[in-house]
Amino acid sequence: MKHLIDPLDLTVEEIKELLDVANQIEADPQRYAHACEGKKLATLFYEPSTRTRLSFEAAMLNLGGKVLGFSSADSSSAAKGESIADTIRVVSCYADICAMRHPKEGAPLVASRFSKIPVINAGDGGHQHPTQTLTDLLTIRSLKGRLSDLTIGLCGDLKFGRTVHSLIKSLARYQGIRFVLISPNELRIPDYIREEVLRSQHIPFEEVESLESVMPQLDILYMTRVQRERFFNEEDYVRLKDSYILDMEKMANAKPDMAILHPLPRVNEIAVEVDNDPRAAYFKQAQYGVYVRMALILKLLEVEVC
Questions:
Q1: Choosing from 40, 127, 129, 262, which is the catalytic residue?
Q2: Residues in Cβ contact with 255 at an 8 Å cutoff, skipping those fewer than 6 apart
Q3: Which of 47, 148, 165, 220 is the most exposed place for a label (fewest CB within 10 A)?
């Protein structure tokens, strides 16, 4: 039995196979419409979510399966003090596969050690978000035709942004990747990403505070919001929340084929006027999230579609 806790749980070849299946689903969804009939997905979301939870549910429903679960810790027995280990032991009796989001780093890993069903990490604190990374990789490959030889700009909250951490770890395995890390000093990437992922693997990167100065270099611009829920005090959040706002004036300096990604939700960091620019790919990215989660469910349940 296989779980997906960290993006590196999948080899580069396994990721290619997953993305290929996701593209096949996009091209012919009807072929997969009954692949998971009789199967159930449990969504254990201890933290608020719109896209991730609904895209998991849509993925399983699109495959002909069913969904059960909860959308906040308050509506589960966690509110009574039940442990992660006990929760997953019980859920293993009810479902065939589980997607878990939790505010504590490492909670899905703990669940996987006690589970009798595959566990998917749907986001753990400021740590990892592997299915968003698969979504990002599918989006980049679909738009650019490759996952190599790209300059990737990551902008905003790079300290607490689990989507950023997962994406850097995954893209570092491809040839010719260069990162431009754009953030205020207080929100720079954690030391372990800088040292253990980038420097140890000799991945070229630069850290800057100015978005405007690097726009002409970028093939991909990955915007993130400053996450209010990760701050210890409101004062720091208010001071940093509007550090970067992408508007059409800044877009004028970008490459004609640069793609803008964002894991969403958006707050103020991308002006609404940018939505009409053909380089804005963040809503397409949300659609790709359904296809890639469908492919992942099939893989972890070992379902073959003829």
A1: 129
A2: 216, 218, 219
A3: 148
